Amino acid sequence: MIEPDVHRGFVAPDVPPSEVFDRCVRCGLCLPTCPTYVETLVETSGPRGRIALIKAVAEERLDLTSPGFVHQMSECLDCRACEAVCPSGVEYGRILEPARTQVTRALAPARSWYARLGRALLIGTMFEHLGVMRAAARLLKFYQRSGLRALVLRSGVLRALGLQDVEALAPRVSDRFFIPRDQRFSAPGTSRATALLHAGCVMHVAFAAWNEATVRVLNAAGVTVVVPSAQGCCGAITIHAGEMERGRGLAMRNIAAFEQSGADVYVINAAGCGSALKEYANLFHDDPAWAERARAFSAKVRDVTEYLDEIGIAPEKFGPVPGVVTYQDACHLAHAQRITAPPRRLLALVPGLELRAMPESSLCCGSAGIYNVTQPEMSQRLQRRKVDRIIETAPQTVATANPGCALQMRNGLDRAGASHIAIKHVVEILDESLRAGAAG
Ligand code: SF4
Ligand code: SF4
């Protein structure tokens, strides 16, 4: 049975699940786009099979906690590739997310003490209080830079604890953090608009260079950037972990911070977070005090590539950045936000850059939030597949627009002995080119 309250996630709660089920005509056109289906060729590991399973649970023909169902709700990457191609307009996310939330809740009492502690630390502490995240990042930085890491790796303790893969996926902490402190970065001359930059949670301590590049590129495009200190984590991981009220609290904080800023647009450079920010309205559909504010907020959110493509940058500002670049579509940009052309159009502006198409560029790399921790085997299969496609394409750089994809591809390329291939955000390449242009 699907409980009504779990629809208060990033899924539209106003549509009965049965309407979603009944829209699926079982044509199978979504199957070749589903990463877990193409890897396994098992019906229940594809969207059509998962829809049938969720329907069976909703109709009480299958138990919510049956191992097969639990496995499928966890194995699905929530990449939404199936949604993007479905000719019947099945909004798969509308049923997956509530089903997943219910499984999470139903299994909560059986969680081990360390799993509970991990959730409390991550969900209840770090994502809510970014100061705690910064303290943890400083500890991780000490571990990564002091020689302690080399010692731990040599000792074999991580392997003994089964933690070596998780450790390898940890982001390299930035040399300096990009902390929201009510900064204002004014565009030279007359400003075309004011953009609020969402600095992120992990982003502000591990991808600070992406935020810095974003500020410079927006400034070069004539846009003033503000970074209010009152903003916080987007809440995506919190909501997906089934903690709806906490997630709504994070959303309220961002909505209020962004309203007070008076910015024209809210720019984000992480696809997963952008997709969450654009779906805030679904969190407050039954809350008269917040519904309209959330709708107005989401309407102003733009991925940085979407926004730059919309406003345009004078082509003569770009200087040469020679090299072969391939672009990897992040699922939450390509499928959830349906943004595929803008990043490519922006990269095409860079003189000397050869943009080479990668086969299966929109097939998930296996990162998907914390999927590489919860489903390590499937995650590694998809990672290897992605790395093979990258190596076949033979680029010097892979451009992306999501931190999770960047970490997953970096880890996979390093394992495959292809550390020479760089991974960059699209804005980092644009920044390089604009700086080359400015230097003449
Ligand atoms: S493409 Fe749409 S209608 Fe066809 S099987 Fe997939 S979900 Fe169902
Ligand atoms: S969301 Fe992605 S992994 Fe899940 S069923 Fe759809 S295509 Fe497959």
UniProtKB/TrEMBL annotation:
EC code(s) of this entry: 1.1.99.14
A molecular-function term among this protein's GO annotations: 4 iron, 4 sulfur cluster binding
Every 4Fe-4S ferredoxin-type domain range: 15-44, 67-90
Top-rank taxon: Bacteria
Cofactor: binding details: Binds 2 [4Fe-4S] clusters.
Gene3D superfamilies, alphabetized: Alpha-helical ferredoxin
Catalytic reactions on record: glycolate + A = glyoxylate + AH2; (R)-lactate + A = pyruvate + AH2
EC class of the enzyme, as a word: oxidoreductase
Cofactor(s) listed: [4Fe-4S] cluster
Entry keywords, A to Z: 4Fe-4S, Electron transport, Iron, Iron-sulfur, Metal-binding, Repeat, Transport
InterPro entries (alphabetical): 4Fe4S_Fe-S-bd, 4Fe4S_Fe_S_CS, Cys_rich_dom, Glc_ox_4Fe-4S, Helical_ferredxn
Pfam families listed in its UniProt record: CCG, Fer4_8
Entry function: Component of a complex that catalyzes the oxidation of glycolate to glyoxylate.
Name of the molecule in the record: Glycolate oxidase iron-sulfur subunit
Protein source organism: Vulcanimicrobium alpinum
